[in-house]
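Sanity check

After download, print the first record. It should look like this:
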Amino acid sequence: MYATVVGGVIDDVCGDLGFETALHFTGGCSRKLTTVPLDTTDADFVQFNFRFSCNTNPGNPVNRDTGVMIDYSRNGGITWNALFELYNDGNNEESRFVNIMLPRESRGVGVQIRWWQPSFTASGADDWAIDNLFIGGKREEKMLSDAFTIHNYNVRPAGLYLDRDDKDMWQFYDNTYPSNFCGRMNVIRAGDNTGLPVSVGTKD
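Expected structure tokens:
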């Protein structure tokens, strides 16, 4: 799903952005996340949970130019066009939900989406995290969805189930899976993976 991940690791340092772990960018050289080329012809939006400066104490001053840019490319990354900017406003105590409507110019075959931080003060400083990334629209037009979970092949997957008949209603359903319970068919059972949070979220 990703062409490049630079300066980021999956961890739980930033707390629960959506599903316990998130993709956390703290690298000292570059910080960048780029998708593989996608067919966004019928896509409507980019959605994700986001948090700034998990490693920074609340109230510490931040620089206006340490924000994160979201761009798109239609030519394999040769040129990039600005889509959105996330300002580092110093509010690092909670995550935020970001919904970016895709303009017509960003829709087509071979489109890549990029998150990158042009400048930061030092390794580990001005960090940021992203989780529950979703690019798409209607059910049959899903392009990309990722909860950035750490895979443990000894337990049942606790992330998204994308093949359920009701998936057009739900955006995320973490630590849940289709099952039968107490004689009832086709119910959603939750919480089987001990220690992992349970959440269900609707689409907009």
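If your output differs, re-run the checksum step. Summary of this record's structure: The first strand starts at residue 2 and ends at 6.
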